[in-house]
Each structure stands twice: as structure tokens, then as C-alpha cells.
Amino acid sequence: MAAYLHPGVYVEELPGPQLISPVSTSNTAFVGLAEKAPAYNKAFQITSWNQYVDTFGSFMWGCQMPFAAYNFFLQGGSICYIVAAEPGGAAASIAAGALTVTAASLGAWGNKLSVEIANYPSMPDDPPTQVNPVFALNVYYTMPTVGEALTLCDQLVEHYAAANKLTKIQISGATAYLVEAFPGFSANDLRKTGAAPCNMELRVNSASLFVRVAVATAPDPKRPDNMAPTSLSRGAGDADSTPIDLAKALQALDTVAEISLLVAPETVSTSDLGAQRQKVLEVVGYCERRPHRDLFYIADSPFTATIDEIVAFKTGRASSSGKVPEGNALNSSYGALYYPWISFLNPSNSRNVPIPLSGSMAGTYAATDQAVGPWQVAAGINYGALRNATGVTRILTDTDQDVLNPNGIDAIRQFPTYGIVAYGGRTLTSDPSLIYISVRRLMIQIEMSLYRSLQWVVFEPNTQRLWGTVTRDITEFLTQMWQAGALFGAAAKEAFQVQCDAANNPPALQMQGQLVVDIKIRPVFPAEFVIIRIQQATLGSS
């Protein structure tokens, strides 16, 4: 106690209550493939798409994470942590004079690309070997011959070609799509100054989804000779994409505490739907094994799945088509599954690209959290609008959703007037108390807010004074949550209860160094089914 020796006014600061602040629920972790990385299997904070491009590169065919990150920011996300998994395999490539053209990502899929060097503009009476000063670089993707099975990559290209009305030609008896064309180059576009990229490298590599171009340095560069469509070669790895070690990449998140959402879009990058389900289960398992269970996983559905197949994928039964084998069901309150895919307009080439939902939904979650809170499900025409979407890969009907919704599959619907919206808000679980995404995410927020804000209690004297202080602080926090609309009740006492007293802290527990706080809350549930009852009645005059 201070000594008061002379008359006067003494001002003293007294300790106030230890405020419990709600933790952020919108920071998102992304795990997947990138064009480059400062280090593989390590998390880096990113706060804008431009920063992502500077750090991890741009869009690549065969890699879903760049699309997911772009649409996360486009839909309203602001902070994310990126983990670039170390890729396996080798990229297909071909040399054409001073040019080396390489598939944008690693994997055997690049062997289906062909490159053409042609005069620009091409003239019908041009001799094939005549070289004009101006040339074009054309990129084709060759489809399997009749009777040959389509890979996932083939099906994505087929959808991409149809959506963008791409030119179709024949190469060695097989159908090929002109997926990209870069006209108007001359020898000057191959000229380099120091280590800076030349004009052709800048133009192609900033806009291409399918290839990257490297130009050999020469004092007097010459344009490459004309070349008929010729296949890239030496691509090695998975037929659909670049193989990664998902478990090792997820481990990079073990030391990242400031995340609440998880996106792992590369789970879709295989034609084997059984293997794809195992990848989703692996990510769900990671969320459930986190020490504080603080992550919610937004899972992606298979691109090719029918209604029966996506239900089989979710429930663990075998599909009637045989494409989905029997296996473990996706049953967890720490994840949600969205179906089908959407298309978005790729800003680098103004073409529609089919993408899975996880990145877009993470951004939608983040925007909804900022506007309301995690207790508001990111679904419906107000909070589920996918402004980035230009289409859906399958139009769902009410009858389709009658099958999807009870099985915990969240539908993406296209409605007149309202456009494309997320129209489901359920988790993967069969537990009725945690069936809604908003309830699980609210529980995560409350639990993590208490965990982080009550660290000061550890090693305090376990007395009635401490019990009262803890009760007061938690009550204040939950009152604020109730006032914000997160908890149900006409009064705070109807919305929650907090107990920390002698009844639940008997001497035996105190001697073991334990302090017990019992909390009961009434979360708000979404109005999933709105029933309007209208009855015809004869109303008498008053």
C-alpha cells in the first residue's frame, strides 16, 4: 500500500476485468500446389492476390490452389496462410529453336499438349516452310482416341473447351482443342536485356494456363522455324496432376494458431474417386486431431460425380456406377462438402474455368463473419451469393437437393434473379446437435476465445475470489455474444449459464490443482425450412 504523507489528490490505477475477446474465425489455411514457393511445406501469411502471385506464382492447369486463393480474395477473404506442397514428377517440354515450351505444372498430363509455330497471320497459299517475320505460338490439348478412357484432366479440358467454344482440329487421328493462342511475335520479342525476361516470356507466362516459355539468350535472336503441332514429352507423374505428399504439407500447419478454416483443393486432382475420398478423410482426420480442434475444413466434391456418386462418396457406400467404391463415410462436424463445381472467369485470359468450391466458400465464410459472425451460415441469397461464379457444372433441382441435403451435402444452386448461391449449411456429421455449420463454427469461436483469453488463470490461487472473477469475465463475454445475436434467448439468463463455485470445485479437485468451469449455451440455429401456412377463412365485420 502506498504511503500518503502530504495532503492532496492521489490517482491510482486499479486492475480491471480480464476482457475475453472473440477470436477471428475467417483466417484460412490453404494447402496445395503452387508455381513456386519460398520454401515447400511451410506456411506463409498472404493478404492479397497480388502478394500471392509475387510469392507463389499464378494460375496453372492441373493445380487447384491458385484458383482457390484467387477466389478466396474475390469473395471477401482477407488473411490466409499458404502451404505449397513439394511437387513430384517432371514437367513435359519441347524445344523449338530458341524457345523451350514447358507444361505449366508437373505431371504426365503435359504429354497431351502440342505446340505449333505458325506464320501470323496465316495465309491459305503460304508454302508450309515459308517463314514470315511475325509468328504465333499455338497450344493444343489432344484428347484420347475413341474407346480410350478419359482421365480427369481430359474431362476438365473437354468442359473448358465447350464453355469457351474452342477450335477443334485433328492431330494424328485424334481430336485436339486449341486451348491457347499467342499471336503477333517477332524476333524482337525474343530479345533479352540482362536477366530480365523478354517480351514473349512476359506475355505468355503471365497469361497462359497450360505452358511456360523460356527463351535462350542470343545477341541476334531469330524467330523459330514454323512447326506443325508437335507433342511435348518427358512429363512424368500422375496422369491428372502433380502428385504431392498431403500429410507432410498439413504438418506445416501444426505451429500455426491463427487459422480457423482449412482448404485443400488438390484432393480433387485424381480420377480415382475412392482415392479422392481417402484424401478428404485424411484432411478431416487432421482437423479432428488438432489439439484444440480449432479448424473447420471446406471439402470439395469430385468433378465428375453424379447425384448417386456424390451421395456414395459422402456416405461411404458403393455407387451403382461402380466408380465410387465402398469405404469410410465422411462423418464429422469439423467439415462440410459442397457440390457441384462452379466456373469462374479467369482474369488472365478472360475464359471460363471449372473449379471446385472450397476457395470461393472460404471467402464467402470470411465475408459473412465480418458482416455478422460465424453463427450466420454462409448460405442463401444474402450470405451465400457466389458473385465470382459464371456458371455451375451441373444444374441442380429441388428433387436433387431432396437427396443431397439429408445426406449432409451442401448444394450450389442457380436461381433466376438471384444467380448462383450456396444453398446448404450442413456439416458432414450425423450428430443432430452439430448438424449445422454455423453451430460448429460458433462453438469453435467460443471455445478458442475462452482458451486464449483465460491463460492468465493458470497458477492463480484457486479461491472463491478467482471463481468469481472467472465467472464474471465469462458472463460478460457470453452476454456480448448474446447481444450480437449468437445465442438464443429473450434474456441473457435464457441464453447461457456459467458455474464456477464450490459445487463443481470440491476440495478433492482443488487438491489436484484443477479449476472447473461449467458453461451451457443455447446457440441459434438457421431457419433452414421456412413453412408458410395459409388458410382461407371467413372474416366477419367488426
TrEMBL record:
It holds the Pfam family Phage_sheath_1C. Residues 220-239 are annotated as: Disordered. It comes from Azospirillum cavernae. Belongs to the myoviridae tail sheath protein family. Gene3D superfamilies: 3.40.50.11780. InterPro entries: Tail_sheath_C, Tail_sheath_structural. Residues 429-536 form the Tail sheath protein C-terminal domain. This is Phage tail sheath family protein.
